[in-house]
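Cont'd.
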Amino acid sequence: MKLRRLRPVWVAMALVLVVLLAGAAIAVQRYRADIPQHFANPVQQFKYGSTGGDRLAGIPIGIFKALPRLCRDYLPGDGWESLGFIYEPGMDRPIGTSLRQTLGLERVSLNCATCHVGTYRLERDGPAVIVPGMPANRLDLVAFTRFLENCMLDERFNPWQVVQAAEATGARYGPVDRFLLRYVAVPALREAVVFARFRLRFLDYEVAGGPGRFDTFGPLKALLNWPQELLPARETTGIVDFPSLWLQGARAGMHLHWDGNNDSVEERNRSAGFGTGAVPPLADDASLAETASWLRSPGNVPPKWPLPIDQPLAARGAPIYARLCAGCHGASGRDFTGAQVGQVTPIEEIGTDPCRLDNYTAALAVEQGNLYAAYPDQRFRHFRKTHGYANAPLDGVWLRGPYLHNGSVPTVRDLLEPWERRPAAFWRGDDLIDPERLGFVTTEAEEHGRKLFRFETRCPEGSAQCAVAANPENRHEENTCAPGPWAGNSNRGHDGPRYGTDLPASDKDALVEFLKTF
Amino acid sequence: MGRVLRACLLALAGLLVLVVMAVVGLVLVLRPGPQHFACDTDRFLYGSVGGSALGIPYPIFMVLPRVFPDLVAQYATAGYGPAKPGWGGYGAFGVAWEQGQALPAGFSIDHRVYDRVTITCALCHTATWRESPEGDQHIVPGGPAHALDLGNLVHFLVAAARDDRFNSARLLPEIALNFPLNWVEAKLYGWVLIPVTRFALDMAGRQLAWTETRPAWGPGRDDAFNLPKFILTRTPLDDTVGNTDFPGLWRMGLRDGMPLHAGGEGVSLYGVTATSALGVGSLPLPGFHARNDWIVAFLRDLPPPPFPAPLDSAEVSAGRAVYAARCATCHEVGGARTGTVIPLEEIGTDPEHVRTWQDKDAARMNRLTRAIGMSDAPLRGASGYVARPLTGVWLLAPYLHNGSVPTLADLLRAPAERPTVFWRGYDVLDREQVGFVATGPAAEAHGFRFDTRLRGNGNGGHVYGTDLDKDAKRALLTFLKTL
């Protein structure tokens, strides 16, 4: 065929076809692309990298930034900071969020650092020091969940206002993006929140979380869609403190989680990934592996106690620690040797609040066995129902307050008192170090105008809710969880001569000083 | 040759080729995939016996309790006390599920074209027990699955299939949370496997409709011979009730050559194994014989676990004497009547099981099995109940073929003094009475209410030893724990 014989109409059609194909190719590339924001520095990657959960639950970044202003009345203060999220200079999203381009949108979701990066300060008006691997002592994850539910089911969360609010934060959208946000992202988010509000209803059955705590295994029951309203009351409270994530390599073989229900660090990591939405088909294995590798690297250690230590006093505490504590908690803050370290102490013996223990059942353990079942090599094999709480090493103990698995004892010094003399109520969510008692300041109701969380270990006298509880502490003599409005918050246990609560005050002070070296 | 005839022949040949291809294809799809196990016990618990005829695609099987938690709650607790858990997936149906395993004992994953869950011998023949309500569950291969509620489990699956939610739109997203499905797989599940599974479960429900008007199997039992009679041999429904306890399968070598099954229906270890395998959906395809031979070999010497507490040796020897005098003739290996069928008039236990499987029923079954190439697996009609060796008897509760007597101590009481109503399926050991805790608040709260006045549940008969004095009974109970 000779060129001159081509009619212009064919040429035009060919051109249109080429343009259409190119457009389709660009669209496919754009909307099929799956690009997580990645950081070369492992600590940055831990703080801002993706678990893959953003593929499931990612919120378009413009909307994420707009939410606090769109629904200001559902927040205790301005911005995500009011829920305890931490911002670093130079980042436009808080620590513990990841960013991934999927479905043509940049989407934000939570990651490991949400619950495992915290802050401390030495003076009320001093700077907050950000510590990776430290429990997120100020983050109120339950309140975050409630906020998303309230805001996204509010009438303001409609396609027009959401896009408007997103653009008000500085986002610039083309017509295609705007269309996607309005008619895909907004309805999908609402749908997701309706789903989440139903599945996460376990939060309705337990005591208020407050900053630094969440129900670890509730999301799992949600994924399995257990009929939560049918569960016996003693199994419904699973709220616990976020743990620290330092020195995971040295924890190999220990019983992990508060009740020691898994002795594989690797499985524990994957299980925790669920909490960020990284369900098996969506998990970003490469990124999770990077995080895991950082967590077990020798560089992942808690910071040193930043104030002077009274060396003679600490030296006097050392033998007391060696005699009473080292067997269960390790020889030091770096040397975790000890006959009982990482083992489970039976509940009858440790006597701490039993609710978290009862919350994890053999029925749940076996169902976990088929969660990753499509991947036989990665399937959970190590979850076991235990009958007590695990003895954890104390690395960085000064940054891990409040103490015990449920965060019911404000300071180390309080933990060395018999339970009757421990504070019955205190405030959580302050990051100001209490250098005398070791832990955070828990005696003030607010800091810088921010209201702190009042933590009740038992029914306050005269409380109307106490009338319904047979036992003001919500626990039975035989150490099973008794339901009630404060179930899970008891500050009993870890008490008696074996635990040093009968030592003279000077010995306790020496022990506290020694623990600053951890 | 005429053109028409040639065309007909050609068409016929083509059809034949298609049929052969379809059969070969089905065989290729349905034969079990390769599996590897660390030990024989694991193979028994989790290894396929080729039950693909009753297989359910794994992703579908896995998400059903998540899509239908209300039906789990309804069916797992039907007939039970108020504290029976109605959650925990398939765990709610009393299966023996080891912590750390993907599936309970008795479920195997066959991979061929698509993953499917098939059931195995271990489903009904793995026992569980606990020392105390808060204690860990022990899992015992070869023991009777006395807590497994097979009837409720099947009714749950059927109810799910008949529910509006059993469709691709609801199941696929739930599957996607756990299984990565590519486009082709998503279509395979959405267009074929989900609808076919739904149809098959509904059909199974229709085949089992007769169970709904008879006394519930309850935990630890099924209607062992009405199942093949009504379903496999298409015998017209009659009014029999053959609810029978799952037996223990330890040291089957001792019973080689004895009549097997409760009523002596079985002739050989191989035959019983092969027909039972057929019952879990294992068709006599290549590999069938070798697999059943392996099962027989495994069960030949499989020991029961020892009683989990020290026993007083003086009591044991006193009890041995009582046993020798009163029980050994029928229950000791080598006893004059051990392994014989004791006629109904003599044993006096509930007659319903015998009524379900007469010689004519056995003949019908044998015609069927011969036709599919299983002539080495004949069955007989029942005429009474087999006196068995008492291997592992402490874990065989409840007692008698229909599980109508909760403990050995009760069995040594006159029938009128045995409990009329008790609760089954609560797997906490009763060391004193020997059996499981079957009465009292805990059993009533967790267990299945078993009424001995219902058809097939009679607790009469076997009055042997009921006349012993208190000390002799106690000594005998202690001795029986050693078996």
